[in-house]
Design brief:
heterodimer, A: two-stranded antiparallel ribbon, 18 helices, 2 strands, 1% strand, globular, disordered N terminus, B: Immunoglobulin-like, 2 domains, 5-stranded mixed β-sheet, 10 strands
Chain lengths: 606, 289
């Protein structure tokens, strides 16, 4: 009955590499460093971004330290980075939150989703032997390194950029505007450009691969949701990113070449000579958010897709409403292009525009709601496997609900007048980016780890990691809503200078302790990851009894991925199908059973 | 263990709700009741949305907890429910949120229009702006038109914004406005971007370099205590847009005063500003006192 069920086929997964690529043995450097194999590149992205996650986390903890214990010496990290005795100065504080956001967004979340999982999963899940452009793929990884170095250099020269990850001019356009507005800002902008190049190369590759290289039978509506998420993300990147890159160049030109795209006339910053001007600072905000709002979905859609795959597998149930899920994802992406103005309700743009952007923003809540209900629908009636993967996915769903609902407050323009630029916003996007995306990523790491390394991660450690992270995350991010309602603005080195915020100190201390707990918990993930890579329990091809194509390949797949080019006969979520016999899954490669009709002798597919 | 995780996921929304219910009592809520009409409307809208999202939150979490609990208790040899979805359910959960969203969207438009769309600006306030506020790193510079200035139309105001007049009065970080009536200020930035944020009045407007942005509001002092020492009601003014290392310390205040006290304040300011310490006028003043 089954042609490619690994359990029946009896492949020895441990020596999978040996069955492939015997014809060209590659040198170590070609195989593991400058590799053009999508799996190696994916793993390179994964390891780099997981390490960067720790860096970004450390920066966040430093921010939290200052908010809980302002002006007191920061232990451990302070010795190395902050000024005298480990005290965080206000200019160092601005650098901390700027770099926390930059690292987390540009070096962790975007590359871990598109770079790591995009690279690893796309060819495997669509049944291709590699990406369409392997060399371009390699370059997309190696372009991350100049970006990381430039971000690093902005620390060393000039104390780090200090205009926030949004880099609003004039602060970012004039070198005298702040201690970090000099060389550090230029390095930061150049780093951003490299990240942009990297993403662009990736997205072109993904689009081409998904459109052209699907296995026979893999129609668009048989693709797993991860692929849909990555596909739509790649479209978003391809269309939105050029705008940011152009804006970045314009800003560099303003800084270095004396143009004035964003600088108005007669501005005197920090006693420098008046500007010649003629530019408009709001232009940057429009260009920046025209990219960065779609970027919010770039940071979410792949995670949504992966969670859909994992939920269906762990609930042993077909995904509830596959097509509505695809349509709502497309709707989110489409609407994502016309909502950028909601970041600018108080910016001084034409107030009439506020209404338009408010309407489109309200509408984007719809597909998000549809997705949430469908996830719950997927769990309904499922035979739920309570492993760490499932727990992380469940956390994704419940935290996404909070992040989605808090978004409605700021979509309402009048309410946004009050909560804009307060901690309410910080709470909202942390619930989406940490609560949803990162929990999705934690789940995905554990889910696809066996495919990547042929070994399982330890489930008990992973559960502890989940438990502590969940408590820490909610302890850190939930109280932020209250800080926001109390009117505490973002990016304040010392909010308690203002009498109306004084009483919030104990709450901030509680949040910092929660954040520390969350930070410590990440060492469990790191330890589990690297330990399991070498000493984890060995596994076969399909440890989760999942349906999609990657599970027909050896673990880890050799060069060229599949031993037999797969042919697809079914959708990706045929769990617990009445046709599956004693098993509860039907792999996508499982051919339809030919039943003989007794009377006529004709055959019928089922 | 399965039960533990089910309870875990049911427990945390309950904690969240309890904490939210406790928040106002613990002073984790708005910084006092709003002291301006726009603030009252914003708070009302906030509370309305809060009620709606709380209902949705409870509903979703109950559904979530229920499916999790059921999913944990399915027998080992039993298969999961084989279904690919439900057309009717999809329609219901698309249309329902759509209706709710449209309701919120349309309901709040009026508030926004009333306070931000120019055609509805209060004309009395427009014809006599109270002050020009210029945000700089890291202070708020305030320029009042002289107490006797009467503006003649829009062009005159534009001219005043462009060209300071000798009668103008200047202060820093201390904006006085008359209470109980619509007041208009012109906001601008002298260097980088800032944002004019008065939490207790629920007012926020970015100050954009190169642009003059009018903001109008009305301070009604409904719940505020009168401060004898400054003869008015004092509200904190802070900066809400990152403007450099000293962003957090752009501390200032908006003082709402009754009409007479406000006039006295301006006269006092005028006296201080034009007092050169030698002229006869200043001697007279001292004698009078």
């Amino acid at each position: 009955m089954s042609t490619l069920n690994p359990a029946d086929a009896g492949f020895n997964s441990d020596h999978a590499e040996d069955t492939h690529a015997e014809h060209h043995e590659l040198s170590f450097v070609k195989k593991y460093v400058f590799s053009t194999d999508h799996k190696i590149i994916g793993i390179q992205f994964l390891i780099t971004t997981v390490l960067m996650l720790m860096v970004g986390g450390a920066l966040a903890l430093a921010v939290r330290w200052q908010l809980a214990f302002p002006w007191s010496n920061m232990p451990i990290l302070g010795k190395y980075f902050a000024s005298e005795g480990g005290q965080i100065s206000p200019e160092f504080y601005t650098m901390l939150f700027t770099m926390h956001a930059s690292v987390m967004i540009f070096l962790v979340i975007i590359p871990i989703l598109a770079g790591a999982f995009g690279n690893y999963l796309i060819p495997l899940q669509i049944g291709a032997d590699d990406m369409a452009f392997p060399t371009l793929n390699m370059l997309s990884y190696w372009f991350m390194w100049p970006a990381m170095m430039l971000f690093g250099m902005s620390f060393l020269f000039g104390g780090g950029p200090a205009s926030g990850w949004t880099s609003y001019p004039i602060l970012s356009a004039i070198k005298d505007a702040a201690p970090g507005s000099g060389a550090a800002q230029t390095f930061w902008l150049l780093g951003l450009t490299f990240v942009g190049f990297s993403s662009m190369m990736g997205s072109i590759n993904y689009l081409t691969t998904i459109i052209n290289m699907r296995a026979p039978g893999m129609t668009l509506f048989r693709m797993p949701m991860s692929i849909w998420g990555l596909f739509i993300t790649a479209i978003l990147q391809a269309f939105a990113l050029p705008v940011l890159t152009a804006a970045g160049f314009m800003l560099v030109a303003d800084r270095e070449l004396g143009t004035c795209f964003f600088i108005p006339a007669s501005i005197i910053v920090n006693n420098a000579s008046p500007t010649i001007g003629g530019g408009q600072p709001l232009l940057w905000q429009h260009l920046f958010w025209f990219y960065s709002h779609p970027a919010v979905y770039i940071m979410l859609l792949p995670a949504m897709g992966m969670v859909s795959d994992m939920l269906a597998t762990m609930c042993r149930k077909p995904l509830f409403g596959y097509k509505p899920m695809v349509y709502s994802m497309s709707a989110i992406a489409g609407l994502g292009f016309i909502v950028w103005g909601h970041h600018m309700f108080t910016s001084g743009m034409n107030p009439a525009l506020g209404m338009t952007f408010m309407l489109s923003t309200m509408m984007i809540a719809l597909p998000s709601a549809v997705k949430t209900f469908n996830w719950i629908g997927t769990m309904w009636g499922g035979r739920i496997q309570f492993n760490a993967v499932m727990l992380n996915c469940a956390a994704f769903v419940t935290m996404f609900v909070v992040g989605g609902l808090s978004g409605i407050f700021m979509a309402a323009v009048p309410v946004d007048i009050y909560i804009h630029d307060t901690y309410f916003i910080v709470a909202h996007f942390h619930y989406v980016l940490f609560g949803a995306t990162l929990f999705g990523v934690f789940g995905a790491i554990q889910f696809w780890f066996p495919k990547m390394f042929g070994r399982m991660m330890n489930d008990s450690v992973a559960k502890w990691h989940f438990f502590l992270t969940f408590l820490g995350a909610n302890g850190t991010f939930f109280p932020m809503h209250f800080l926001g309602v109390a009117g505490m603005p973002r990016r304040y080195a010392d909010p308690y200078l203002h009498p109306y915020l004084e009483h919030l100190l104990p709450m901030n201390q509680f949040m910092t302790i929660s954040a520390l707990l969350m930070g410590v918990a990440q060492f469990l993930l790191l330890g589990n990851f690297f330990y399991s890579m070498f000493y984890g329990k060995k596994c076969g091809r399909n440890p989760w009894n999942a349906n999609s194509l990657e599970w027909t390949a050896p673990s880890p797949p050799g060069h060229g991925n599949f031993d037999i080019p797969p042919v697809v006969y079914r959708g990706p979520y045929e769990y617990s199908s009445p046709l599956s016999g004693d098993k509860d899954f039907l792999m996508q490669t499982e051919p339809p059973v030919k039943k003989k009709k007794k009377d006529t002798g004709e055959t019928e597919d089922s | 263990m399965k039960k533990f995780w089910c309870l875990f996921f049911m427990f945390w929304p309950i904690v969240a709700l309890v904490v939210c219910a406790m928040a106002p009592g613990m002073n984790w809520w708005f910084p006092g009741e709003s002291n301006s009409p726009i603030g009252v409307e914003i708070d009302g809208l906030f509370n309305l949305i809060l009620i709606i999202v709380t209902i949705v939150f409870i509903g979703t979490q109950i559904a979530f907890g229920y499916v999790l609990w059921k999913g944990a208790h399915i027998q080992k040899n039993e298969k999961a429910l084989y279904t690919h979805g439900s057309h009717n359910l999809e329609i219901i959960w698309t249309v329902l949120p759509c209706v709710v969203m449209l309701f919120i969207a349309l309901y709040q438009m009026e508030v926004w229009a009333k306070f931000r769309v120019q055609s509805t600006f209060d004309q009395d306030a427009v014809s006599q702006p109270i002050a020009e506020v210029t945000a700089r790193q890291f202070e708020w510079r305030i320029r009042y038109p002289g107490p006797d200035t009467k503006f003649e139309g829009k062009a005159d105001i534009t001219d005043w914004l462009k060209n300071p007049r000798p009668t103008d009065l200047y202060t820093v970080n201390d904006l006085h406005v008359p209470a109980g009536k619509n007041v208009l200020i012109h906001l601008r930035s002298g260097d980088v971007q800032h944002s004019f944020f008065v939490p207790e009045l629920r007012i926020k407007q970015d100050a954009v370099p190169g642009t003059v942005i009018p903001i109008w509001f009305n301070v009604d002092n409904k719940t505020k205590k009168y401060d004898e020492s400054i003869k008015g009601f004092s509200y904190e003014l802070v900066c809400a847009e990152l403007c450099g290392w000293g962003h957090y310390k752009m501390q200032a205040r908006v003082v709402a005063q009754l009409e007479d006290e406000y006039k006295n304040y301006l006269l006092q300011l005028q006296k201080e500003q034009f007092d050169d310490g030698v002229s006869a006028e200043s001697d007279d003043d001292e004698e009078e006192e």
